[in-house]
Design a protein that fits this description.
The protein is an alpha/beta fold. It folds into 2 domains: 6-172, Rossmann fold, CATH 3.40.50.620; 174-207. The protein contains 8 helices and 5 strands; from the N terminus they run αβαβαβααβαβαα. It has helices spanning 3-6, 21-29, 46-64, 75-81, 89-111, 128-141, 155-164, 176-201, and strands spanning 8-13, 32-38, 68-70, 115-118, 145-146. The protein has a 5-stranded parallel beta sheet with strand order 3-2-1-4-5, sandwiched between helices. α3 (46-64) links the parallel β2 and β3. α5 (89-111) packs parallel to α6.
Length: 215
């Protein structure tokens, strides 16, 4: 019996290619054999969605040799149930996790998987505890075992590995609201660097980075 056939099958919801690298690697080391599930109706515009899926598909086939299932793209449902939360990030992200992971659980149940996980546990920019709660609740409702791992310590490794592979790396989570938030954060970071540089030149302490807003 091959090592792969002896492993425990697991459905792994993937948010993008770069965030899939370390979960697949470490889950395999634990004795799981992941099958990737793609369902991310939050990613906008559609060209961005298709680009991320193409990157994931190429890596899964050519490098990782992992199967990939493209599930339903519930874009209209996302607009009805998640988009109204707007810039209320905590509410919006929790609703978004629920929509994507519910579809992943449906696929897992229909395809005969008993274990489920997600690559959303990689990025330090995700709401880790909320995502964990949502996955645990949905898995229990569907008779599945959630395999929740804190992959955040491997985030830097995933950045390095994905760059080495020449993978496209996006600079926002996916939806139009996260794109606006990320753009604002980049703007604030640039303003802080300018303020810190000016302070050092004047022989003063740089302003605190956390919560810095341009005056």
């Amino acid at each position: 019996m091959s090592e792969k056939s002896a492993a425990t099958p697991l459905l792994l919801h993937a948010c993008c290619g770069p965030c899939s690298l370390e979960p697949v690697k470490y889950l395999r080391r634990e004795g799981f054999e992941p099958t990737i599930c793609w369902t991310n109706p939050n990613i906008q515009p559609l060209a961005e969605h298709d680009r991320r899926l193409a990157v994931l598909r190429d890596w899964a086939s050519r490098v990782a040799h992992v199967d990939l299932i493209v599930a339903d793209d519930q874009r209209e449902l996302w607009e009805r149930t998640v988009a109204p939360a707007g810039l209320d990030r905590a509410r919006r992200c929790r609703l978004c996790y629920a929509l994507r992971l519910a579809e992943s659980c449906r696929v897992a149940r229909e395809r005969g998987f008993s274990h489920i996980s997600t690559t959303l546990a990689v990025s330090p920019y995700q709401l880790f505890d909320d995502c964990c709660d949502v996955l645990a609740s949905l898995a229990a409702r569907n008779g599945l075992t959630p395999v929740w791992r804190d992959f955040r310590p491997y985030y830097a490794e995933s950045v390095s590995d994905s760059r080495e592979l020449g993978m496209y790396r996006q600079n926002y989570c996916g939806c139009r609201f996260s794109a606006a938030e990320a753009a604002l954060e980049r703007h604030e970071a640039r303003d802080w660097r300018k303020a810190a540089k000016a302070a050092r030149r004047a022989g003063k302490e740089p302003p605190p980075r956390s919560g810095y807003l341009p005056g």
